[in-house]
């Protein structure tokens, strides 16, 4: 699952990305794995890799049938490895979870929810969007999963801050307009004379005029970019109310909300599988073979031996040549093992982060019909944080909004409520933006608190820093490899799980090929 | 067809939108049509409108079966009007033209093109995108035409200016970074002390830090928003080359290219009918009745009479109670009529604007596979102006790029070339951005010069100002009404044609209902 917009950057900055990567490459170098082999040009293991070496593919037990576990099994399977996946829960996919009518969602210390969405309606309770550079899209292509555009940025969606609601296009036009005016003014006052040449100042002013849609005196006087209550047609249209003063615009506090797609992770455009994110799980399960996945098998002990591994679980014991542990670190940390004290400490280092979402199904797509909002995200400073509008099924009768997608404190707050109270609270908050219609005609809802999902217990994790614990777990402990988004710089993205699984597979396969 | 991004705003500003609208509303007021009736809440004529008045629906002849003509016939048809459409060309749709394999495209003073695109490949040679607030989407909904997202803004697409090519995300991060740094610097130098309070300066600086992704000293030191040659995965990624100096960034001239979706017409997200824009024409033709459309019927004389109209065309004469002339003004201006000298002058006032496009079909979607560009637009200062990547059919084998979409001088230049030379020139230009692969594996191409289409002769028109000629033609001349995007503030958009047709229909219907 990708992070909430407003906190994402803080997450990445907080973990000191650059130093960690260098340290990790050094560690990989010690294993004879150059970065380019490791994850720049991943080569899936092939049956042919064994033909000249007179050895067979090994037996591998994979702990966890989330995306990392499934990708590991899928890639190893290409070369004929004999993989078994042990999954504590009742289904594969992990956080890649799409809820539909007829599903039942249980949680720790809370009532079960029977999902009652109508035919064809789905709720991506976990990951919901894919950036075009991510390896996730390659797997969609390889597995024949059709994709469509996910709208992550919508000028017609709203920004709700400090009790006021404006369209994103209006908030953006006003901030850019005043920023441009101020810099033009400062330039003309000579404030940049010691910084840039007069010729560059002219080029800058020309840009600022366009950037802010400034008037002839280089002042911001509003702009048709702000939008209309009635858009131009036969007549010239009726603009929305004139902009406030600079002071009012700054006080409105919309600034944070209009930069949501500036980062490389969330930049426009993004994508989603047609029909639900779990198409990826469905296709991976098919490719791996459902008979290889043992659900309800909770791991109780991990033992690495000189010639193999032994994994005890609630249904028995599995012996294999190697193990890939693709569980969340805070779950792994609780399982007895003989991998050493450093591993125990390392596994306990990253802290789980709470995350929650609610899907609200309406009998009528009022956001399209009345608000002309087709897809995208409304940003708020309320505890719901975001509202997502669906990027598919436009103009159909029913539709599903994500009524909150929050993390940390707000996610814990909602998670502590009953499903009914979560829904009521979400509706009360959304009403502040959309009015009374937000509470009308809600056909069904389902909410998830990822930190209360029994075998997952978090939306994702946060490392205090990408330190030696991080790099330690990127190497095998005996015959046990680790995998998951939590071992990458793509935490909280499926792509992280996939990249990590590919890394573990590469290391394991190299070792098998090189072993005597 | 919507205008080219870089010139669009100039077009609208140049015609003095606000004054014209006021004058037009005054004219409409004289007709007893308040703006709210006229086009805020359009009510389609219904059969029931006649029931209490003891009169029948009239006979209407519509000149031109483009989008305006089709919508007029469709809406009048709802109340039982007997409509006949006279179309000079061989097909309905006007500028709404989608080319597919097997089509043949002729042009004035040029060779015909036999279109050879593969199965399922299409080229929207006219309009290609729809803003969510436009009435075009309402017609898609009403007519049951499925829509999908059109990507108009892509951070991964390129900006090519002054011989250099960078990703749009890089160009944007650098411009925003330096703008933020400069304004932060000026603020801290006290340049704004007389403009805004210290407290507001703090709020501003907080925004600038985020907006520009500034470092701790409020200086722009590059940003991961600029993108990566290798995106983060197991490692932290390899950023693209560090940004140039402010002088270099300004000299690169990317500023105009990164504001393309700021306006209300082109803001993200936009939409397109699934399978080609002409789905709108297909559905309208079905609804209107194909037997009502006489193709190959070029109008030769328009006569308004006391009790009806008489339209001479190349296949005969049509008599009717009313006429809606939905042809381009510069075409209408050449047809003899008895509507008076003022009408002749008014019709000759708007000037046609040249516009051209080429569709390039490739056997391989290298832009997705190699460049990770899924949909969107590359902006250039070359004579091709834009390159569009397809927003549909992702991951399929073949795909079609729009290799140029240009207007005015550039469109005339390409239009004057043979189809083969247009293609060669487009490939040579595109190679500057994408390299040699741009010229390889091109399976087929088709190009259109709208100013050389026999019965259209322009991409759209430009009014010197929204003056009395504009408002004159929004009223009927005798029993002749005019319609087309050229009579609205949505010139060059299908929505303009639709809104104008609705306006003419409303006026005509009111008159019929009120006539003795």
Automatic annotation (TrEMBL), chains A, B:
Superkingdom, natural source: Bacteria
Keywords, comma-separated and alphabetical: Membrane, Transmembrane, Transmembrane helix
Presence of keyword Membrane: yes
InterPro entries: Amino_oxidase (IPR002937), FAD/NAD-bd_sf (IPR036188), Flavin_monoamine_oxidase (IPR050281), TAT_signal (IPR006311)
Family annotation (PROSITE patterns): TAT
Start and end residues of each Amine oxidase domain: 67-508
The keyword Transmembrane is assigned to this record: yes
Transmembrane segment boundaries: 12-35
Pfam families documented for this protein: Amino_oxidase
Name used for this protein in its record: Flavin monoamine oxidase family protein
Higher taxonomy: Bacteria, Bacillati, Actinomycetota, Actinomycetes, Streptosporangiales
């Amino acid at each position: 699952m990708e992070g909430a917009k407003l906190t994402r950057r803080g997450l990445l900055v907080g973990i000191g990305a650059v130093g960690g990567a260098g340290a990790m490459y050094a560690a990989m170098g010690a294993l004879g794995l150059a970065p380019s082999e490791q994850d720049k040009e991943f080569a899936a293991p092939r049956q042919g890799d064994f033909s000249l070496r007179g050895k067979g593919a090994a037996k591998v037990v994979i702990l966890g049938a989330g995306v990392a576990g499934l990708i590991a099994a899928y890639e190893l399977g290409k070369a004929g490895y004999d993989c078994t996946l042990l999954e504590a829960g009742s289904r594969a996919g992990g956080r890649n979870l799409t809820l539909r009518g007829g599903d039942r969602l249980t949680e720790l210390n809370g009532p079960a929810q029977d999902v009652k969405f109508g035919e064809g309606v789905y709720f991506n309770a976990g990951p919901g969007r894919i950036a075009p550079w991510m390896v996730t899209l390659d797997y969609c292509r390889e597995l024949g999963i059709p994709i469509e555009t996910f709208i992550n940025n919508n000028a017609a969606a709203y920004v709700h801050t400090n009790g006021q609601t404006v369209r994103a296009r209006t908030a953006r036009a006003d901030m850019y307009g005043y920023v441009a005016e101020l810099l033009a003014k400062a330039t003309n006052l000579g404030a940049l004379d010691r910084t840039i040449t007069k010729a560059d100042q002219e080029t800058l002013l020309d840009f600022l005029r366009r950037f802010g849609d400034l008037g002839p005196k280089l002042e911001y006087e509003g702009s048709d970019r702000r939008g209309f209550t009635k858009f131009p047609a036969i007549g010239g249209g009726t603009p929305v109310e004139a902009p406030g003063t600079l002071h009012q615009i700054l006080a409105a506090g919309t600034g944070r909300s209009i930069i949501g797609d500036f980062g490389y992770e969330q930049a426009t455009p993004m994508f989603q599988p047609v029909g639900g994110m779990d198409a990826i799980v469905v296709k991976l399960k098919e490719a791996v073979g459902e008979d290889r996945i043992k659900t309800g098998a909770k791991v109780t002990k991990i033992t690495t031996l000189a010639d193999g591994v032994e994994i005890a679980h609630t249904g028995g014991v599995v012996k294999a040549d190697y193990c890939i542990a693709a569980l969340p670190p805070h779950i792994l940390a609780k399982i007895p093992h003989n991998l050493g004290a450093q591993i125990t400490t390392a596994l306990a280092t990253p802290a789980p982060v709470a995350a929650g979402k609610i899907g609200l199904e309406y009998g009528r797509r009022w956001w399209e019909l009345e608000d002309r909002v087709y897809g995208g995200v409304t940003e708020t400073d309320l505890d719901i944080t975001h509202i997502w509008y669906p990027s598919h099924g436009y103009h159909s009768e029913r539709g599903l909004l994500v009524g909150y997608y929050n993390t940390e404190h707000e996610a814990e707050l909602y998670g502590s409520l009953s499903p009914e109270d979560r829904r009521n609270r979400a509706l009360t908050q959304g009403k502040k933006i959309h009015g009374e219609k937000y509470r009308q005609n809600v056909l069904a809802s389902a909410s998830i608190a990822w930190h209360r999902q029994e075998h997952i217990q978090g939306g994702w994790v946060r490392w205090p820093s990408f330190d030696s614990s991080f790099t330690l777990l990127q190497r095998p402990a005996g015959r046990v490899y680790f995998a998951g988004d939590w071992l990458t710089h793509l935490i909280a993205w499926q792509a992280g799980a996939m990249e990590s699984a590919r890394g573990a597979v590469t290391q394991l396969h190299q070792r098998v090929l090189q072993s005597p």
